[in-house]
């Protein structure tokens, strides 16, 4: 019964981290910070490298969250939340910097 909350956090944060690619892209498209022309221009932003780097970051953070399941200290919740937080921060940051430098 003690492990239900960490396991639910593990599943939820990894689902958010897995979908962080679409969360970042579609939220910036919806707010108008980036446009569809931004994605179609050659050389302005490499979408394939950006999406691959988000997935690599998510996989590394998922390994941290697996390790957090075996920890007993309170700091394990930071590691459990890492797959939901770190890829989203990187995704928004990289897209926002690339969008602001292209204007």
Order of helices and strands: HHHHH
Helix/strand structural class = mainly alpha
- Counting DSSP H or I runs of 4 or more residues, the number of helices is 5
Uncertain parts: none
Description of the molecule:
- The chain is mainly α.
- The protein is 78% helix and 0% strand.
- The chain has helices at residues 4-18, 20-31, 36-40, 47-68, 76-101.
- Helix 2 crosses helix 5 (76-101).
- It is elongated and about 50 Å long.
- The termini are far apart.
Keywords:
103 residues; 0% strand; mainly alpha
Secondary-structure map with pairings?
Elements: H1 4-18, H2 20-31, H3 36-40, H4 47-68, H5 76-101
What is this entry, summarized?
The chain has 103 residues and is an all-alpha fold. Helix content is 78%, strand content 0%. Helix 1 packs antiparallel against helix 4 (47-68), helix 2 packs across helix 5 and helix 4 (47-68) packs antiparallel against helix 5.
């Amino acid at each position: 019964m003690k492990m239900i909350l960490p396991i639910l956090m593990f599943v939820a944060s990894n689902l958010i981290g897995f979908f962080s690619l679409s969360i970042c892209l579609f939220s910036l498209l919806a707010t108008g910070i980036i446009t569809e022309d931004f994605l179609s221009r050659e050389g302005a932003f490499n979408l394939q490298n950006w999406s691959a780097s988000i997935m690599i970051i998510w996989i590394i953070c998922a390994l941290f969250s697996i390790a957090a399941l075996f920890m007993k200290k309170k700091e394990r919740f930071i590691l459990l939340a890492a797959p939901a937080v770190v890829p989203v921060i990187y995704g928004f940051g990289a897209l926002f910097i690339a969008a602001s430098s292209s204007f």
